């Protein structure tokens, strides 16, 4: 079962700036080799369920190891059995409709 | 690592009513033996990370087996290393402040 | 247009404990007179769209006034045009299925 | 009060494909003139709170007008009072750390 997720990890108790923690998560994601894309409010990741979820868990572990005593994460998870779908397909199918004025 | 999550599984392509799918997820959660509580827009579950995440995966599998070709789930995940915290603590610490008029 | 939301306001830069900020949001919600219910990872609120959204905005304003320099909120919003639905209906329709063993 | 949001509108009761509804929301967003960026699991939008929230409401109205009897939306909302921040800043501050190997 493949999954496309949108991951937003928020450390608490580390002050206002969280970019170093987000960067640490990005390195976890890059190390995984999974397809991913950073945006302004999270990161899209796609791949086999267990691999993707291992990344999410590793992000929590790494952010705690950096000293964050508390983390609250928001995650969206999409799966489908009717056909394969990739992150790029989702964006391009919407853009195609917009280009055609539909 | 313990986690408190808020799980909201939304099947697509099965019509407007999704209560039978939500009920199926509730049975998955109950079978797990994990502490949980249903509310109007999701279910709080707490326990060890891997057990809780196995429940989330099983919910996706079960809802697909029921015929839903597509699922989009929203998940919040909270972990902390500074102290133990349970779902009831979170609610009661807020209620205590409200009672004291703070 | 009526809406049922699930609101989770997270202040950043105020330390690990956020219960006083959550309690302040609860008071904003109670003052609004809207139907609501606190759970372990947010608060369900229902009512007319503009009234509910005014509460969400007021929560951000109040939490900033308490000194939080940054807030990240997670919100789920449900609307439907096919019929009226209330928070209690959502919970009880699932519980009815569970009781019937469906 | 400026806000950066991540908006994901999910119509129910319209079948498996939701790209035409997402495209309709994109047109609402483009008409607003607000800064925005589509990704694989939502759209980032930034601007003054009331303008951004008017777009979210208009999306619900338009998707219902297209025939969707039910909508469930996931929204993240970020505000800060310590300094101005834009969507691009959030991405580039993380990328800068990654480039520096921090």
Automatic annotation (TrEMBL), chains A, B, C, D:
State the organism named in the record: Halomonas ventosae
Q: Where is the Thiamine-binding protein domain?
A: 6-95
Q: Which InterPro entries match?
A: MTH1187/YkoF-like (IPR029756), Thiamine_BP (IPR002767), UPF0045_domain (IPR051614)
Q: What is the lineage of its organism?
A: Bacteria, Pseudomonadati, Pseudomonadota, Gammaproteobacteria, Oceanospirillales
* Alphabetized Pfam families for the sequence: Thiamine_BP
- Tell me which domain of life the UniProt entry assigns to the organism this sequence originates from: Bacteria
Cellular component (GO) terms are: cytosol
Which family is annotated? Belongs to the UPF0045 family.
**What ranges does the record give for the region Disordered, renumbered to this chain?**
79-102
Question: What is the protein's given name?
Answer: Uncharacterized protein (TIGR00106 family)
Coiled-coil positions: none
């Amino acid at each position: 079962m493949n999954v496309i997720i949108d991951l937003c990890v928020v450390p608490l108790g580390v002050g206002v700036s969280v970019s170093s923690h987000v960067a640490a998560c990005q390195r976890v994601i890059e190390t995984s080799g999974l397809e991913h894309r950073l945006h302004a409010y999270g990161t899209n990741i796609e791949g086999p369920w267990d691999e993707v979820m291992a990344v999410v868990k590793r992000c929590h572990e790494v952010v705690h190891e950096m000293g964050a005593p508390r983390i609250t994460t928001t995650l969206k998870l999409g799966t489908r059995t009717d056909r394969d779908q990739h992150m790029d397909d989702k964006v391009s199918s919407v853009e195609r409709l917009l280009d055609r004025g539909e």
